[in-house]
Amino acid sequence: MNRKARRAIAGHSQRGMAAGSAVSTLFLQAVTLLQSQKLDEAETLYRKVLSLDPNHAGSLNHLGVIARARGDLEKACDLISRSLTIQPEDSSALVNLSGVLRLLGEYDEAISACRKAITAKPDSHEAYSNLGSLLLETRKPHEALVAFEQVLKIAPPTATAYLRLGLALAEVKRTEEASEAYEKAVALDPNSAKLHVHLANGLLALNRDAPASEAFKKAIALDPEFAPAYTGLAAILQARSMFREALVVHEELRKRQPDNHKNNFASSFLRNYICDWNGLAEEQARLLEAEASFVPFSVMCMNSTPQQQFTFARRWADQMGGPSVILSKSPAVGAKRQKLRLGYLSGDFNNHATVHLLAELIERHDRSKFDVSAYCYSTEDGSRERARIRQAFDHFTEIRDMTDGAAARRIHADGVDILVDLKGYTRGTRSQILKWRPAPIQVNYLGYPGTLGNFADYIIADAFIAPMDHHSFYSEKIVHLPGSYQPNDTKKVIGEVPSRAMCGLPEGAFVFCSFNNTYKINPPVFDIWMRLLKAVPNSVLWLLEANPLVKENLRREASRRGVAAGRIVFAPKLDLAKHLARHVHADLFLDTLPVNAHTTASDALWTGLPVLTCAGDIFIGRVAGSLLNAVGLPELVTHSLEDYEALALKVAQDPQLLRGLRERLAANRLTAPLFDIERYTGHLESAFSRMWSLHESGEAPRAFAVQPIQTKTMENA
């Protein structure tokens, strides 16, 4: 090589070294600016670097980070991807890409990017942390747990790392270990209100209410604006029947965050429950207009329209998120069977109203046609009801300690053809299991008086409860059973009758009674009850004693309406046999609206007590009417509160009319459809068989009515 060429090469090398030095200096300055959140200045320097070196991968990667911070996710994805075409093994860029893809909803690609980052740099705790979070979000908690455990192996422990570990442990039902992880997180960052709330929730999962309360209080002290701490503390107080204290907590948050709909809604429902009505109707009307997501059951208990109830149910279902896989689309399990496999899903397989209604139905299922399984997430309460319902099923699978995904996979692996959800959106529900679609057919039945808004194919109803022209208020297809939708247990024992004095009832008084839960009582209905007491001398109103505040509030409301507080008599809670026995001292059961009596109405009718109802607009307010039609007393179904009041007064003032109603009820009790559980079971089984035949033929779910079948008349009750 000649001397000129060598000088040219040397000069080129020196210029390259100079350029490289400038690039490095600018890049480091840009990194410092980015770390200081000076995005505009950092971007300017990164672009200068690229003007000198268009293939500078680090600058492209960091410009992607800036674009993400500004919310331009598509641009961020493009820039980071370009950097990876230059340095495909750059773990940092792969982690950044996974974060952007996560925000774009591209979970599979985000997980793939994390796994590539780990391959490129096996000790990247950032990659493991991102991977764990993605797996947790996509309902793969066991895999997420492995990732979070790895973070703690390869990096110094942090509060965030222990928090994420705790969340994964909670998801896989390792609650004791989850609580321990939260405690370690709090120890590393004791001034975080968020961590104290997670610790409190972990303690609640272990039924450690007292330390959970203290953790919530600590969170409030650390951050008086952190709403979850208030709502968590209020929930504990409410569970302890400390209703005044719970309301104080709700009100404290309301002062700080007057537009916190979740808090206002919880406070509203609590006030409903304790019959604290001052300004409640106006508040609930405002809440129903909010663009927020509230528990649909609570919405149904307000003076809401059918369309509002459907809207909130759909909204609630949509915000629950979805699983990572739809199981019913995977291959069927097992060989073709002769029997249809039914799976009943519930958290109420214990001493609960659902079991009081359901037990004999499960016992009577035709085992030549059906294999009947329970999937139970309720706790063992040691009751006779729990023992009986467990014995009634062919298979009783405990899923309480399984994740939703694991429970769904178990149901699917068992080859369940029709999954029957008995819980809906009531307390303690795990309706998320239904979102995995573990069975080809899913049914909303009995436990929830309304639509789920999604993920059930059918709802079991009857022609009165849900006429076919109500279909627009249900996401499910309506199935009509003959008579009533509600099963009843004809083995219910009525205990020894107590004296009137033992019940606190005056001798010779006419007894209006309503053993409905107190959240069903509202001012318009209570106004009617008070007018009836005024119009019927020597009459009393007999209500269920739910809590001391209800007694105080309702007696005060009675006094405001000119009725002596002592004319309201409260019945303490008793076991079912004793509760049924005391019905003999009541003369007329007065129903509530917009929420009717459900099990309480059938209990009253079983004991021979006539029920007067007013039918509402949709399922939850039409149940008592369904029961009365099925027991042969349709004249006790009114359709306006004016007619309801007039008929109640007429019955109370006409002993012969009341006697006739009682005699007819006594006769019908042994023959009418409501308590003919043999025929009812046949009807429900016909419904299940029809659903399956539609499924096998490839037809989409569709509404239908079951044709009545005949059985021999009941001989014993």
Strand content: 5-15%
Number of helices: 31
The separation of the N and C termini measures: 114 Å
Question: What is the CATH homology-level superfamily of one domain?
Answer: Glycogen Phosphorylase B
Query: How would you state the average pLDDT, rounded?
Result: 92
Unreliable stretches covering 5 or more consecutive residues = 1-18, 331-335, 712-717
How does the helix and strand content classify structurally? alpha/beta
CATH fold name of one domain: Rossmann fold
The helicity comes to 40-55%
The largest sheet, given as strand count, sense and whether it forms a barrel, is:
8 strands, parallel
The largest beta-sheet arranges its strands as 3-2-1-4-5-6-7-14
Keywords:
single chain; Rossmann fold; alpha/beta; 717 residues
Task: Describe what this molecule looks like in 3D.
- Helix 5 runs antiparallel to helix 6 and helix 10 packs antiparallel against helix 11.
- Strands 3-2-1-4-5-6-7-14 form an eight-stranded parallel beta sheet, with helices on one face.
- Among the domains are: 154 residues, Rossmann fold, CATH 3.40.50; 176 residues, 3-Layer(aba) Sandwich (Rossmann fold), CATH 3.40.50.2000.
- It is built from 31 helices and 14 strands.
- The N terminus and C terminus are likely disordered.
- Helix content is 54%, strand content 8%.
- The termini are far apart.
- It is elongated and about 105 Å long.
- With 717 residues, it is of the alpha/beta class.
- Strand 9, helix 25 and strand 10 form a beta-alpha-beta unit.
